[in-house]
Specification:
There is one protein chain. The protein has one domain. Helices cover 75% and strands 0% of the residues. It is built from six helices and no strands. Helix 2 packs parallel to helix 4, helix 4 runs antiparallel to helix 5 and helix 4 packs parallel to helix 6.
């Protein structure tokens, strides 16, 4: 859980500052998560959760690359690796918060929502953090 928390914190800060989530960060977190999953005999479930969670984000990234970067896709895969089936709650909370923030920013700037952008990692981190706090499953 500490590895995931540190990963989400660093990803959030870098995404807020530069709109980039470093490859080295998600690679290290993914490797550590996979190692933990193998150790707990949950590798298949963890990898499947990560892949399934990342799939819609990958599709969105391919359809509209200017709207979502691959860093977000890889971060979602890592979150799925750690949270397994609880990833869906984390994504629902995170995307809900991102949507609300986007709407409020659009209204505040008087711009259409399609012209409002914001970094996604902090919202994904909030969703994952809230899921862990309420007792979502995670790799220990």
């Amino acid at each position: 859980m500490i590895i995931l928390a540190v990963t989400l914190a660093v990803a959030s800060v870098t995404d807020l500052r530069s709109r980039v989530i470093p490859n080295w960060l998600v690679a290290l977190a993914g490797a550590a998560g996979l190692g933990l999953a193998v150790n707990e005999h949950r590798a298949v479930e963890a990898v499947l959760s990560g892949a399934l969670a990342a799939a819609p984000f990958l599709l969105a990234s391919m359809i509209r690359p200017e709207g979502m970067g691959m860093g977000d896709v890889k971060l979602v895969a890592v979150i799925g690796l750690y949270l397994e089936e609880s990833v869906w709650l984390a994504l629902a909370v995170g995307l809900g918060l991102a949507g609300l923030a986007g709407v409020l920013m659009s209204l505040g700037k008087r711009l259409p929502p399609s012209q409002t952008t914001l970094p996604l990692a902090p919202f994904l981190a909030l969703g994952a953090g809230m899921t862990l706090v309420i007792g979502g499953n995670s790799l220990q």
